[in-house]
Design a protein that fits this description.
It catalyses: S-ubiquitinyl-[E2 ubiquitin-conjugating enzyme]-L-cysteine + [acceptor protein]-L-lysine = [E2 ubiquitin-conjugating enzyme]-L-cysteine + N(6)-ubiquitinyl-[acceptor protein]-L-lysine. With about 150 residues, this protein is mainly alpha-helical. Helices cover about 60% and strands about 0% of the residues. The chain has helices at about 25-35, 55-65, 70-85, 90-95, 100-105, 105-110, 120-130, 135-145, 145-150.
Amino acid sequence: MPGNRTCPKSQQVLSHTTLTPNKLIREMISFWCKNQGIKLPDTVQFSKDGGLTKADRDHFVSLLKKMSSNLSGQREAAEELRQLTKKMPSFRALFVEYVNAVPHLLFPFSQKSSSEIHVGLQEDLITTLLNISIHDDNKKLVAENPTAEE
């Protein structure tokens, strides 16, 4: 994740952020899976920019568009965005790349007061906001968004 040089476990500053594939661990996992009869998924080929494919980016945009749909669509999209931003730093970074991503995410708050929004939807939106704020470049986006201030 660009800009983040802190270990998430120890909170110590990292001397570098270069990742090195651990082929021995990969072999051990493959061996164990083979013995257990578990088929590993094919290796995913990542794009140069953060490990996300065009399909990932398109999916991200479609989830943001769902935030302006009906309650069911909003809840589905908000839950998935929460899960993706929790597990994948590259999805957190997408919020910087798409200028209106935060306003789209918070669209339900702009339409109704907090007390009128479904509790599960509120939780997913706020958790997603917290998840994306982990990414240093998103802190300013979140802080400067008028909907996030309310």
